[in-house]
Every structure is written in C-alpha cells, then in structure tokens.
Batch of 4 targets.
Target 1
Amino acid sequence: MHKKLIKFKNIPLSNGLLFNLNNKIKNYDLKVGYNSDTHLVSLYDNVSPEKLFHNDYVYDSSQSDTMVNHFKEAALSIQKKYKCLSPLEIGSNSGIFIEHFSKKNPIAVEPCSNFAKITTDKGIITYDEYWGDAISNKILNSHGERDMIYSANTISHIQNLDECFKSIYKCLSKDGVFIIECPSFLELLKGNAFDQFYHEHQSYFSCLSLNIILKKYNLSIFDIELYPVHGGTYRYYITKDNYYKLEENVVSAINEEIKYGLCNYDVLKSKMEVIKNNISKIKNTLINLKEKGAKIIGYGASAKFTQVTNMSEIDNTIIDFVMDTTPSKQNKYLPKSNIKVLPYNKELLKKADYCFLGAWNYKDEIMNKEIDFLKKGGKFITHIPTIKIYDINNR
Ligand code: JHZ
C-alpha cells in the first residue's frame, strides 16, 4: 500500500541551472511516499527522465578527488574479487570507474550524451541510451552476457524498476555479479540529509526494500559494504538465482534497518518533522548572520546546495554567489534562488566571512584545502545533520 510521507512545494530541478536570470524556470512539487509492501521510500508523480538526464547534464563526478579515489578503489577491489571478463557500467558519467577496466573490453551505458562522449573518448564502447529492454537486447546480441554489471548512483534514478531489473537478469551471466552503489536510506535518515530528496533521486533504497524488490526478479543481495561517500553509501553485491552464498552482513544490515524503524510509517513520519524543523533552523541562522552584516558565499554548487537553498528559501540576497570547479555549471544561476555559480578561485574566499558548504559530503577534503581561510578567521557552515558553524578551533 502506498502512503504519502512529505511534499515539498514548487521545487525546480536541482541540476536545472539557468544561463541567465531571464530564463523561465519550471517548478514541480516533490512528493515522497512509502510503500508498506516493499518498504521502499520513493517519489511519486515525478517528472519524466528526459527532463532530468539529457545532453546538457551538468554533474561531473570527476570534480571531487574523494569520488575519483573512491571509484578507482572500487574498480580495483571488484577486479580482485571477481573475474570481470565482460564488465558493463550503467550510468558511467565521466568514466572514472569504468576507465580502470580498459584492458577488459568494458561497455558503458550513459543516457547523457555529453558524458557518453567523454567515456567514448577514453576508448570505451559507450551507448548513449537509457538503461532498459532495448539497450539490454542490443548489448546481448552484439557483445553477449556480462559477468559484472556495476551501477553507482543510477539505479536509484531509474523510474521503471520492473524493466530495469528484468533487463539486468537477462544480461547477467549465471555466475555474474551485479553491483549497485547508492546512498543508504538509513544513513540519510540518521544524518537528516533531506537535501538528498530531489527529482533525480527516484528511489531511496534500504537494503531491506531493495532486496524485497530484487527477489521478484530472481536477484538477491548476497554481500554489502558501507562507504562514507555521499553521506553513507551502500555497495550491494547482487546474485542471480542465488549463485553466491548469502553473507551474514546482509542479514545484520536489514536487522539494523528494521530496528531503526524503516518498516514503520510512524517513525518515518516523525523523521520528516525533524527535517522540517531543521529546514527552518537553517533559514533562521543564515538570515540572522546576514542581518548582522556577515558576508556569506557558497562552496560547491551541488544538487544538494540547490535543494537546501530552495527548501529553506535562501536566495542571492543572503548568499552572494557559490564557487564550483565544474566548467558546465560556471557563470550560470541556480534555479529559483538566483545564486550565481562562479568558477572556483581561492581569492574569492577573501570576500567571505562565512562559506556555506553546499558540498557538505566533502567537508574534510574542502576544509583541508581551505585551511588558510580558516586560519584567517573564516568560517564554514554545514547544515547536515543539523546547522553548525566551523572555525579553525572546531574543524
Ligand atoms: P556532489 C550528484 O549530486 C548528482 P551532487 C547525482 N544525482 C547523484 O546521484 C549524486 O551526485 C550522488 C563541486 N566541488 O558530488 C563539484 C567543488 O567545486 O556532492 C560538484 O559540483 N570543489 C548524480 O551534485 C559539487 O561541488 C571541491 O573541492 O549533490 C559536489 O557535488 C569539491 C570537492 C566539489 O553531488
């Protein structure tokens, strides 16, 4: 049974940056619901995938050292564990995972053609298509079954899970392994990371909900690892027809989720109240600082930055601009808040008393890089798990 959890009204697309302030923006309600049969929390009445993932897509995973290292380590560790003679990545973005398989004839699927081109330029056969029935048939016919299918932060973007998992089952060899990485819903709730709710993120998987859904397709999670990236990410190892033996850590992960209350609608509802409260606190803190004359800038124009500013009604009268290293985001404006994205430049930090850390998930990486700013009295603000100000003494 489907139950409503929370609705955020009039939210623009988090990566829908504007070329100029005359551009028309479209806002959509962001509706989050809970399915009491599968225990999956997901969006309903979402916008179409074509509006979200297209040839002007701006998110580039290679802009953060943390992610570059994470995906390299993932690629090496997976190749140590499994043969990986016929790897496939679904949602390859800038290719920072699949490029480490270059000696093994890898294949990539990436619907954003600007990023598909980047992976192609790295010498990897890349199909710029949405994952589903058509592309899985094409891959099977042209290249044969895959013994390792990897997908990070993409399966949680796919709206038609039925077609997605049927296509995986079809392409995966008998002894193949299907590996999904995506933020853990348990960690999202523990960290109050409400800014992970945005239109791109269709499903907020827990180990429990994902396993229930996979079982309908004769797929199941047999191993699991937790990584700190994106606020707490699970790497799920999935087998076809129970080829691999179930590890105890999967059972423990599911038990922890049940104990926390991920099957309990009232617990989830009460967490939504905490989130609403935090959103008001963020708004009040930033407005108070601004009223006292503070200069506030943003650091890292992540999708989460767009979400937190719009959810807490913070705009360019409060945050002067946001710096980001991603060329395709620079000199554009964040939708609705109208905050301008400037190319990263250390000198710009000198204009700020406070730096609002949109990319809170890279707090350590960024604070280490900007230690001089802190030493000179600058402060960072993070909003997850709750609003907090860091200076040189408490970083
Ligand atoms: P970052 C993306 O979310 C989008 P976002 C997507 N929907 C998804 O699923 C998640 O990832 C997992 C910049 N930056 O990685 C780079 C600097 O400028 O938190 C990025 O624009 N300087 C696919 O957008 C942004 O910050 C730096 O030193 O929330 C971070 O975005 C660093 C470290 C980052 O993902």
Target 2
Amino acid sequence: MADEMANITLNGKTFSFPVHSGTEGEKAIDISKLRQQTGYIALDDGFANTGSCESKITYIDGEKGILCYRGIPIEVLAENSTFIETAYLIIYGELPSRKEMSNFSQKVLRNASLHESMLHFFDGGFPFTAHPMAILSSLLNSVGCYYPQMVTNQREQDLEHFDDAAALLLSKVRTIAAMAYRMKNGLPLIYPKRDLGYSQNFLHMMFTEPYHEYYPHDDITKALDLIFLLHADHEQNCSTSTVRMVASSGANLFASVSAGVCALWGPLHGGANQRVIQMLQEIHDSGDDGTKFIEEAKAGKTKLMGFGHRLYKTYDPRAKILRAAAEKVLQVVKLKDPLLDIAQRLEEKARSDSYFIDRNLYPNVDFYSGIILKAIGMPTDMFTVMFAIGRMPGWIAHWREVAEREKGKIIRPRQIYVGSPRRDYVKMRHREGEISSDYESDDHKSYGGGASENAAAKA
Ligand code: SDX
C-alpha cells in the first residue's frame, strides 16, 4: 500500500490512486488503473506532466538546475572525467576500474572501422547535398546488418550481445559521422588510428588533409570531449523517449538508436545548435544589436534558438559550463568570434526582459555549444551530428533499461478522438446518389471494390 494516495472525484464518486516517490523526493500519481476504474483517460499535451517510466540513469531538477548521471553531478564529471569514462558510467551504472576502463577503451577502439562493403555508401550512396543526420540514421541501422546475432529482435539474444553492440555503436557512430563529412566535401575517407583517443581519433578522421595528417591541439580535443560528455544523457528527452518507445516494441538496439537520431534532428531538439549559429550569423549580418530580434521573438514571429527548456526553469547547468569553455577555446585558437559577443549580448538582453523572465527562459545546452564547434572548424550541418555522438551512451543505456524490464509493456498512449463521427456516411452518400451502387471502374474491380461498395454490399 502506498504511503500516500491521490483522490479524484468524478460525478460524485471518489477514486484513489497510489503516489510513488523517487529517490530524490519526486512525487508521481500512478494512474495505470485510471481508465479501468473510472473509464476516463488523462490528457497531457507533450507529456509535460507525465512520467513514462522509472529510471536509474539520469536525474534532473529543472528548478534548481541540477543534472546528475547515475547520481554524479555533471560539474564533477566535466571537471574530472572523459566522455568514454562517462559513457561507461551511464551504460553500466558505475565508474570503471582502471582495468575495466582499459578493456572498454580497447573494445571501442577495436570497433572503430566500418566493414569495407559499407564504404560503398559513401561512393554514390547519397547525394553530396544529403544532410549528415540522414546519413547517420540510415547507416546506424545498416551497421546492424553486419552483426545479425545482435539484431535478432529476440530480447535474450540481443541482450546477450549487448556489451559488444554498445561498444560497436559508440565507436562506429564517430566513424560514420566523419566519413559522411568527408564524402560531402569530396575528401578521401580517413581510417581511425589505433593510438588515438576517442575524440582525438574523430577529429583526425574529420580534418586530415591528403597532404597533412591532422592531430588536434589537446585543448581542442578536450573541448569536443567535453561537448560529448555534456550531451551524454538527459533522461526522457524527445529522442531518448523515441529510443525507449522503439525498444519497447522489442526492436534491437541499432534500429532504436537510428530512430533516436531522426527525433534529435528536429530544430526544437538537437537541431537547435545549428539554428543558434544561423540565428547569430543573421543578427550579425543584419547589423542588429539583438534588440530587433528579441522583439520578434517576443512577438512570436521567431524563437530565440538555444533559449528555453521543458525542464530547466533556470540556467541549464550544461550551458554554464559551455559558456566558459567557449571563451577558453576562442583564446586557444586565437579567434575573435563576433558571434560569441552577440550571444553574450543577446543573453544579457533576454535575461533582463520580462518576457523571458516571466517564462523562465534561460540559455540551454545549445546556446553556446555551436560557438565551440564553429571555433574548432566544424561545419554547421555537422553540429547536430556532434549532439548524436554525445547522446549515444544515453540512448544505449535507456534501450537496455527497457530491454531488461521483466514484462515491460509496449509504449502505446491513448488519445481523445475529435474527428467527425460519420457512421452512416456511406449510406447517406448513396441516398444522395453521389456514389452510384453500380459505379464501375477497373480500379474498383481489381481491388474488389472500394470501401463504399464493400460497405453498401454489406448494408
Ligand atoms: C534540447 O528535453 C530535453 O532534455 C532536450 C535537451 C536534451 O539534452 O535532450 O535538453 C536538448 O532539445 C534543448 C532545447 C533546444 N531547443 C531550442 O533551443 C529551441 C528554442 N526553444 C523552444 O522551442 C522551447 O523552449 C522548447 C522546445 C525547448 C521547450 O518548449 P516547451 O517546454 O514546450 O515550452 P513552450 O514552447 O510551451 O514555451 C512556453 C512559452 C511560450 O510562450 P507563451 O505561449 O506562454 O506566450 O515560452 C515561449 C513560448 O512561445 N518560448 C519562447 C522560447 N521558448 C519558449 N519564446 C521565444 N524563444 C524561445 N526560445
């Protein structure tokens, strides 16, 4: 029996529902028997008030700006960990021992290359104009074809190969991303190197020139590694919820993360980082000091991209870390980027404007990440791909959390129908002679008659 109950009174009758408490004190009314007991369903546009599951992976307190991976604050990990070590933590629930870290890193490294026959995808498989997120979602699913033992859609078997599949996806997502960039820019594909770290190897595969092997400056590698780490998970965001939904049908890890990439691509979600830079560039090119743009955002004509968040009603803790990192990277690359000045001015203006204050709109993870990516030479159409590489550990961990659930339910929300009830539609149309019953056509004959004939025949 729950220690607290929530009562709902409908038509004079009171129904009680148990209240669940999370380990950080969050409260949830369990309405899993609501329809069975009352005949009613709950309706919650965008699920802003609805928990889809219980999870042990990430905790967020949006009011206080708290983000923890497996209980460890993001600030501690940003300061002391690396992306791959944090990926291990998110996937397996504990920080790795030295030996575990060495084994995991080796496994990731060993899986960096793609099967040679996959390279044909980059030789005419996509137009040069293809967006890298379209290439990424396609090829993440395609990679699974080379490992049939990992994509059986039989829970036990797919879970048996989980460790290999996880390391493989973490590693290959980076190689596919780099090769997509190279193909789009008419550059030869670069193979990963065995003696480079995760982010270093990625930058090497991205920016090596035919006449010059590229090895990034340590600070550049650290900046990108920090971006990946800060994106590694964020509980039930749109793309992770997509991964969980696809996983709930019994689908394998490769299909699930491929669907996650598609959800992340949207401009309201992971696609925002690309839109932020485009917005800052437009403001810069127009000579506006940001005032005009903010007025347009307040009038609902546009959105201040990189601002606002479903959960954070204070500064996104990741944005705070990225703002400082952006300033540091610009010093390292000795770049004076006017877009950073515009971003900081825009933030100051927005944070002193009642429209944004009243709605608790603060910079989110996307507001400053683009400045860093631009400073290290990443083209804007690769920005959301960076988000996807970073988010891969979270997607993998959430897939496993769904797959390991005993008797886990397929995710299938209900709805309220607001269309026109038209039970007698066909008969009415017949009565009005609009659909003549001897209406003949080859199409109708070949398909055994349309809905109207079938219904009329039954009438
Ligand atoms: C990510 O969920 C996650 O965890 C996501 C993420 C992750 O790590 O996975 O954190 C990553 O997706 C960050 C968000 C990136 N998106 C953007 O920066 C796009 C701009 N932001 C907005 O589109 C918006 O803030 C959302 C989508 C992020 C959140 O939208 P909500 O929670 O549905 O809030 P809302 O749209 O209902 O906005 C409430 C009010 C509205 O005004 P009113 O109708 O009350 O008058 O605030 C306004 C909105 O118009 N508003 C904005 C705004 N964001 C909200 N107005 C101007 N500019 C904005 N950016």
Target 3
Amino acid sequence: MSDTTTRDTVILGSGCSGLTAAIYTARANLKPLVLEGHEPGGQLSITTLVENFPGWPEGVQGPQLIENMKQQATRFGAELRMAHLTGVDLTKAPYVLHVGKDVIHTRTLIIASGASARWLGLPSEQALIGHGVSSCATCDGFFASGKEIAVIGGGDSAMEEAIFLTRFATKVTLINRTERFRASKIMLERAMAHPQIEFLTNTTVEEVLGVEEKDVKGLRLKNQATGAESILPVSFMFLGIGHSPNATAFRGILDLDDDGYIKTTNNVFTTHNGQILPGVFACGDIQDRRYRQAITAAGSGCMAALEVEKYLEQFGH
Ligand code: NDP
C-alpha cells in the first residue's frame, strides 16, 4: 500500500548502521520507516560471536545484537517493513521511493544498505549454491557435519568461517589465491594453529565438481606458482572472499567510487556530480570500505540520524 503522507525519514537497510539511525531518529520523534532490505539484519545477522562491540565483555552473538537493536528502535516508534527498494527518484524533494508497486514520499533518506557476500563467479559454483556451496558459514555450517570441506579466502572472514566450521566438519582446507593474507595476525594465527585446518596458498578454484549430481563432490584446483592442477575431494565449499556494496539502485543518481561504494563527504553526506544532495545520507558499509566494523557502522548511522534532524529543522521539526 502506498503512503499518502510525506515521511520525515526513510532508512534503507536494517543492519547495524540502519538500526542505529532508526534508534536516533525514532527518539527524535521522526517516526522512521526502515525498509529491511534483501538481507534483514545485515552482516551481523549471519555472524557468530562478536567480541569487539563495546559493552559486551563476554561478547554477544551477532543475531542477538541485531535483535536488541530492533527492539530498541521499535520501542521509540520506528516502523520496520520487510521490503526493499526497487526504484528511486532523487531529482527533487520530497524524494520518491518505489517499493514494488508502492510509492513512498520522504523528506530525507538514510542509505544503510550495506554490502553482500562476493562469489567467485564460476558457472559450477553458481549452479551448486545451496547444494554444497555457501557464503554463510553460520547459516549452513550444520550441513557440513562430519564432512571434509573447503573455505576460500585469506581475510578475517575466511579465518572466522574456517575456525567456526571445525565445530561441524572433520577437516577444513583453507584456500588462498596468493601467499599473502589480509587477515589480522591474531585470526590468522588462531586458524593456523588449529589442528583441523590445513592451508593451501597460491591456489585458485577452477571448477566445483558435482554439477550433474547436484551435490559438491570436490574442487579442481590450480597452483598459481607451478600451474599444476589437482582435485581436492570435499563435500562443501564456503566462500569468505569479502563483500560488494549494495548500491546498484543509486548508479547514475549518486556519486559512487570505482568499486560501487557510495562516496560521502563530511562523513555521511552524499553527492551528485560533486554537489551535496540535500537530505540524502549514507552510512555503514555502503560508504565505508576502510573500517567496516559494527561499531563504526553504528557510529556513522548515528551521524546520519543527527544530520537528518538538523536538516529537518528547516521544516519546523
Ligand atoms: P577482505 O577484503 O579483508 O578479504 C577478502 C579475501 O578474499 C582476500 O584474501 C582476497 O584475496 C580474497 N578474495 C577476494 N576475491 C577473491 C576471488 N575472486 N577469488 C579468491 N579469493 C578472493 O574481506 P573480509 O570479508 O575477510 O573482511 C572484511 C573486513 O571485515 C575486514 O576489515 C576484516 O578485518 C573485518 N572482519 C572482522 C572479523 C572479526 O574481527 N571477527 C570477522 C570478519 C571480517 P586477495 O588478498 O588476493 O585480494
């Protein structure tokens, strides 16, 4: 159903940054509408223990942290809707958002649509998603119980997934395409010291075997130093190779960088052809490729909310 009134603010995304923006704008009595997006709860909802969010000395489960934030936002009047943006017109205020057949008018917009897991892009990988290929260890780890599996990547995500998956899998082979790891020293050392984790470096996945059987049977690998190919007999492949920003709806509408992240100035202000777009702010991983932490996403969500409040003062709020 389309809204007939013009809203003060709409927030795209329900991860850490979007929900923090929702808490702040709701407490400012702006009755924010949160469109939860394709991946409600964002990346925290598919992670396990978060040990570095201040205030949780023993750590907190990512989904629990998100659930708490949702409750906090709705307690102050935020409206959460399971929907995602299908079109947008930011040429003049109030701005127009399309959500399927619905049309929403809003004076301000907070874009907190985050980033999504990356895939290798192999046809065999795509054919086997949900049949032994996964980008979410937390979601699908259980299905790897008692199996030998592979984790792809060399960053903190890959290390975290590999360590987590040892709870289920009998053996985890971590495959990194170079000799160099992006992971932090502590995570890399933890994974390397784990007796169930084996490392293969300088190695790429050329094909996921098992397309006909609709079940992963192994990986065809290539050693990048020697060119030698080999077969690794695993029954599951988990991707941990980073994320891509969810900003395609804003291509040509807002300034994006070469990798598709929304460019911001003064922390959270968006631009079009280098000029600030009034009332449109971006926060969290959609505009941050450097820090990408829950706490920094929350921080920028707060900044966007405060800028919304300031911007709306001109309308007598
Ligand atoms: P990163 O960008 O840090 O690492 C991505 C990894 O995947 C790199 O090793 C990269 O290799 C590899 N990769 C990328 N594309 C491909 C490809 N097509 N084929 C094979 N390998 C590929 O992403 P992460 O998700 O690991 O981390 C993102 C951020 O989140 C970091 O800041 C990290 O610290 C943080 N994080 C923190 C955690 C924690 O503290 N508990 C847990 C998870 C993430 P190459 O180096 O060759 O490009």
Target 4
Amino acid sequence: MNLTFYNTLTHKKEEFKPIDEKLVKMYSCGPTVYSYAHIGNFRTYIFMDTLRRVLKYNGYKLKHVMNITDVGHLESDADEGEDKMEKAARKENKNPYEIANYYMNIFLEDMEKLHIDRPEIITKATDNIPQMIEYVKDIIKNGYAYETSKGIYFDISKLDKYPVLSNRELDDQIAGARVEVDPEKRNPYDFALWIKAPENHIMKWESPWGLSYPGWHLECSAMGRRFLGEEFDIHTGGIDHIPTHHENEIAQAKGATGKIPAKYWMHCEYLQVDGGKMSKSLGNTYTVSYLQEKGIHPLAFKLFCFTAHYRNKLNFTFDGAYGAQKALERLYDSYIKHLNGNEVVEDSKINEYKEKFMDYINDDMNMTGAMSVVWEVARNEKKSKKLAELLLDFDKVLGLDIKNSPKYLNEFSKNKNISLEDIPDEIKKLIEERNDARLNKDWAKSDELRKVIASKGYSIKDTKEGIIVTKNI
Ligand code: AMP
Ligand code: ZN
C-alpha cells in the first residue's frame, strides 16, 4: 500500500511523495523551554517519533529539524503578554539562558526515556538570530512588513489568502484570540516579526531596528529555511499550532520566498486528562517523571498513546495508564515466550502479518490498527522465534525497546509484591479505610478508595487469603 498522510493544508489524505525520492526533509515545532514539558506535549513528540519511524520503515532517509524555543514565545500566541522565558527567569530568580538549559536538558532526558529518536538537527532559537534578521529583511524588501514603535509587523493584507490552513473566518480568529487592537497596526490580525525590547528585557540583540528580539513564529521560518531550504516535505506540530503559529509561518514564508515552505502539514490532536483540559491550575499537567513515581513506565505511556489515532483526542486517566503498564508487561512477556519457542509458523503467515501491519501504518499512521496486528502476533498460540523476530521488526515503528524485554520485566517485578512494612503509612491507612467500607458493604466507597490507591501507584487484589498489595512497576 502507498504511504498516505492527512494533510492539514489540503484537508485530505494524500499519497506521500517527497521532493527528493530518497531523503525526507521534515521540520517539527519543538518545546518552549520555560517549564517542564507535560505528557500532553509528549503525545505530540511521540506522534513525531512514530512518523519518523514510519518514514524510515518505508526506506526513506531523514533530515529532520526540531527547534528549541528559548526566546520570543509570548504568553499568548497572538503577541500579547510577556516572553515566557523572561517571566520564568524572574520567577525563579535566574537568567533566562539558565532556565532554557535546565528545562531543555530535562526535555531531552524525557525524550530518551520515551525512546523518541532524536531529530538529526536540534537547534535553539537564540543560535539563529542572524538568520532571523535576514528573514525579516527579506520580508520587508518584498513589501510585506512595516515598522511601528513596538516592532516590525507582518502586513496580512498583502497576502493573496489568509488563513490557508484553518477554515476559520478571520473575525472568529480575532474574537477568539481577544486581540487588543493596536492603533499602529494596519490590520488587527497583523503579527509581530520582530519586537523592540523594553529596557528591562534580558534577551535582546542588536538589529537594524535597535535592541530587540524575534517573534515566536519567525524562528521556525528562519530555521526551516536555514537547514532544509525554502521548500521541504513535512511540517509537524500540535493541533493548537494550526490557527496562529503555522498560519503565520506560512505567511512569513510567502512574504520572504513567495512559497509555502512545506508540502505536508501534520498535526497531533490533544491529550486530555479525565476528559478535560490539562492546566496548571487544575494540577493535572503531569510530567513523565511524575508518571514514573506513580509506577507508570514512560514506555507504558507511549503504548497508551497508541490506543488512539493521532488525529483523535486521547483521554488520559490513571486507570488507563495502569492498563497500559500491564499491557506493556504482557507484550514483553509474549516476546520472551516466542523467543524461547520452537513451534513452526509458516512464512506465508509471517508475510500476512507484515503486510497487514504495513497497510495500517501507511494509512495515515493508523497505530490502533497496527497494534491490533502486534497483539495478534504476541498472543499467537504457537511460540516461535520467527514471531519474536517479527515483533522486533514491528518495534522499528513502535519504539518500545522490545529487544530489552527481560531487563524491563526484571525491573517491573522487583517493585512488585512488596511486603507489609514497605507499604507507606498513607497507603496502609487507605487500605484500612477500604476494608472498613467493604465490611459495611459500601461498595461505591470501596471502589473509590481502590482508585485513590491506584492513583498513588499501588494495586490491591482481594484473594481468599487476604489482600495482596503490589506496586505498579
Ligand atoms: P509548547 O512547549 O507549549 O510550545 O508545546 C510543545 C508542543 O506540545 C506543541 O507542539 C503543542 O502543540 C503540543 N501540546 C501542548 N499541549 C498539548 C496537549 N494537551 N496534547 C497534545 N499536544 C500538546
Ligand atoms: Zn514552530
């Protein structure tokens, strides 16, 4: 089956045909490193990783760029508020460069924990300032930008069409973004390319427009052109990038080069928590390390992400994540059983599995379909080394490190079946409360308490001999 992807630009699934037959050039919007990345962010980077792996599985080589935003991302995507880096620096009483390095390193560690392959080029915005200045100059030269007392603005009215990615009407966009109309702007939806720095702004550079700093959208345009050229194949990001960030990136590229920079624009839907938004105020912006503390291995979270198509919302719950943890254990266990098996499985059966798997991944990365094939192979009654090899082959796309299954199973079992004295007092108290509830036949309360206990990383099983407590890893 041909490789197809849904293209946000054309609003349909299209056959993938790269500009260069063998080498795919791809750009992914990376994190803004002012805080810890949360599991929602990582759903988008897992999607990016799977895309890389699917392309490689299809025989392509990759030149993939991911940026690290360490300047210019204001609190609102629509040029309002403070630079997120400067705000974090003030709050933590550090310099913004220290903040950026600290959170970038943790982000890269988390990527490794999730076995997200590193893009060939990772580049920080602050390492691309001359390229960004050149980009603004090109836009001005072509008549698409103008200067105000606040900075250099892109003149949207000069474009043939805006927006091009979203079907939104501009009036909605303005109302949605609640943009304060700046009287110096020619059109309310013009956006800042380059921002003149206030006196106390730490990150600022000499430029033809005085001491100033880049707007967030500009960095991706300039870095894309620097490393991949004016036209490349794929551009990825989260769904929230569609209405503003990617629209503006396209506008900038049209202004500077007259071209839309990427042929295929791909976006990952949101991860929700308990059916709602992830937000700091709700305290549910969980990190990868937090999941680990709760007994959920990062690769179990990756497996959890494969339970929905990347263009559908995915709802994170701890119950779901513990389910994924158990499923990961079952997958590793099946691999070992196949590896030790000597039963005969026909080559035709192996090819059939392989074809089905390929059809799913090549159909706009249908990972739920692909996982159904993985589970068929894992659960095959016949235990065969050929099936173990097949799982390793599929793992080139999954990135679940199946070859190290024994190591993980060992790690998981060590933390299980803990003795009574190792159970923290808080959990013991909850178990006692649950026992009382059960004695009182208050099943609702007992269920509720089991969930609370689970959310703290422990599972309980009621047996004839009493309760067995296990730690979830
Ligand atoms: P940021 O660091 O805020 O620029 O976000 C990094 C990436 O995570 C972007 O591609 C966002 O679109 C994406 N993102 C943010 N929140 C979520 C979420 N809840 N689910 C999936 N992706 C998200
Ligand atoms: Zn970007």
